[in-house]
Amino acid sequence: MIKLTNLDYSIDGKIILDSINLEFCKGETFVILGPSGCGKSTLLRLIIGLIKPSGGTIEIDGINTINYTVKDWRQIRQKMGMVFQSAALFDSLTIFDNVAFGLRRSGLNEAAITERVYQTLNLVGLPEDIATKMPADLSGGMKKRTAIARAVALEPPILLYDEPTTGLDPIIADTINELIKDLQLKLKITSIVVTHDIISALQIANRVGLLYQGKLVEIVDRNELSQAKHPLLKQFLHNYQLAI
Ligand SMILES: Nc1ncnc2c1ncn2[C@@H]1O[C@H](COP(=O)(O)OP(=O)(O)OP(=O)(O)O)[C@@H](O)[C@H]1O
Ligand SMILES: [Mg+2]
């Protein structure tokens, strides 16, 4: 699937990510947990090839991407759906056109696109009559569902989520977590989720990696979280106990 080896990223002499080693398993939901500014979004941007590593390698399906051109990345990105931080919908497009965006670029005909858009809206739990609405007409939770619909419309084997529950109230956040789990089961998708929300992490993760000051300091199985060693991970878990 995706393998990161000694992955570094620096900008203006500042180390943002420091020797990340991580291999994602097929079909799992891997949550990268970490405080604000620790490098989570940067890591996702590297994985989808929007920025280039300063050192180390990213292998996708066994192929080193180091010499990939923009065109190669565009092709490999067909395998990856991305749900950006704060939904990032196209404000001037209807919900239909937002979800259809990637499908149009894939060369499907309009009838097939229409069918797929409605199937996908259904899959993410949005009503069909939402299709003609604009993003500004939707609640935060519905915008997030639309962003997820846009990312899964092409049924990519890998889905990346940047802070899928941030800014949502706890009840809506809960429904988004359920949706992420549901998609993993229905589409057998490999999900990589970055978040600073421990409640979300515990609901969806098969494994959790703690990113702290640019380093991946601990990786634990969901079932072994009680044995976590890093003080910050323990603190996250303590906060979780207080929250439930
Ligand atoms: N283009 C850039 N130029 C300068 N610094 C940057 C750039 N991109 C990211 N950084 C810095 O890199 C660090 C990590 O940023 P990143 O956005 O990856 O963090 P994050 O963990 O996603 O944070 P948040 O939880 O707030 O979204 C931050 O200190 C940020 O200021
Ligand atoms: Mg971020």
Order of helices and strands: EEEHEEHEHHHEHEHEEH
**Tally of strands:** 10
Number of domains: 1
Poorly predicted segments: none
Secondary-structure arrangement, i.e. CATH architecture? 3-Layer(aba) Sandwich
Helix content: 25-40%
Percent of residues in beta strands: 25-35%
What is the molecular shape? globular
What is the SS-derived class?
Answer: alpha/beta
Bound small molecules, by name, code or SMILES, are:
adenosine-5'-triphosphate, magnesium ion
Describe the structure.
There is one protein chain. The chain is an alpha/beta fold and 244 residues long. It has one domain: 3-Layer(aba) Sandwich (Rossmann fold), CATH 3.40.50. The protein is built from 8 helices and 10 strands. Strands 6-7-8-3-9-10 form a 6-stranded mixed β-sheet, sandwiched between helices. α6 links the parallel β7 (158-162) and β8. α3 (95-105) crosses α4 (110-123), α3 (95-105) runs parallel beside α5 (140-152) and α4 (110-123) packs across α5 (140-152). Bound molecules: adenosine-5'-triphosphate and magnesium ion.
